[in-house]
Structure formats: C-alpha cells, structure tokens
Amino acid sequence: MSPWLETSKESFERAWAFAEAMGQKPVETQDTPGFILNYFLIPFNNDAIRLVEQGVAEPADIDLAIKTALGYPMGPLELLDLVGMDTQKLLCEAMHGLTHEPRAACPPLVRRMIAARRLGKKTGRGFHVYSDTKMFGA
Q: An example Gene Ontology cellular component term from the record (predicted)?
C-alpha cells in the first residue's frame, strides 16, 4: 500500500520537485495529525507552558534557555504570544482529540489566560508584555 493513499508516485514526485524549485526543503511524512512540525511543536509548547504553571522558571528565562541551548530564534513562550493563546487552545483540542497524546492536552493556564484576555501580542499581554500590538511590523 502506498503511503500517499490516493496520490500517485508521479504526482508526489512533481510536488516534491515543485517545492524544491521554490527553494524549499520538502520532507516525506505520513498523512498524520500535525504531520511532523505540529506533532512535535504543540506538546513542546505545552511543556513550556507547564513549566510556567508549575513555577519552574519565569517565561523570559524559559525563552532564553531554549534560544541559547537549541539556537532557536524565538523562545516557545514568545512564539505562543505571537500565535495567540486562543489559537494554541484550538490546536491543543484538535491534536489531543486526534492523537490522545497527554502532552497535547490544553494546559489549564491557557484557558485562564484566555479568560483574562491575555492572548499574547495581539492584546498587548500574554506571557510577556507588549507596547506594540502590530504583527510583523504592519
């Protein structure tokens, strides 16, 4: 059985070549919830949220540790502020509902932040405080 179900090998190869022609680096994955990035990223971000919930460290320190140790350009809590707590809640509900992975379940702190309108950059406050709510220099 083909890993692509209804996609022919020729169509897959054309799509792969198209992605490469656009300067992208495609990867092959099964058709699974979140594919690779979100399957990894949603639980990873939830782990960072749980560190804050449990008082392990302050958001700025968690972000600094991740950026320094892993070389990421942005910490997980900075990324969550950019994406928005409301979006993270929806992502968690979708991923957990499909995979039943405990780490994908929405942390209680997310729901409390949404109730307090601390959605992230778009409201001026999430894990961090923002004086400018514009996204990407808009």
A: mitochondrion
- Structure-token pair, residue 129: 């405080």
Three-state DSSP state, 119: coil
Contacts 24+ apart (CB under 8 A), 41-46: 42/88, 42/91, 42/92, 42/95, 42/104, 43/95, 43/101, 43/103, 43/104, 44/76, 45/76, 45/79, 45/80, 45/88, 46/92, 46/103, 46/104, 46/105, 46/106, 46/107
Judged by DSSP in three states, 104 sits in helix
Domain boundaries, the chain: 1-31, 32-123
Q: What is the pLDDT of residues 33-49, one digit of tens each?
A: 888 999 999 999 999 99
pTM here? Answer: 0.85
Over the stretch 107-125, which tens digit does the pLDDT of each residue have?
Answer: 999 999 999 999 999 999 9
Query: Residue 125: helix, strand or coil by DSSP?
Result: strand
Tokens (6 digits) for 16:
């792969």
As a whole number, the mean pLDDT across the chain is 93
Rounded Cα gap, residues 110 and 47, in angstroms: 12
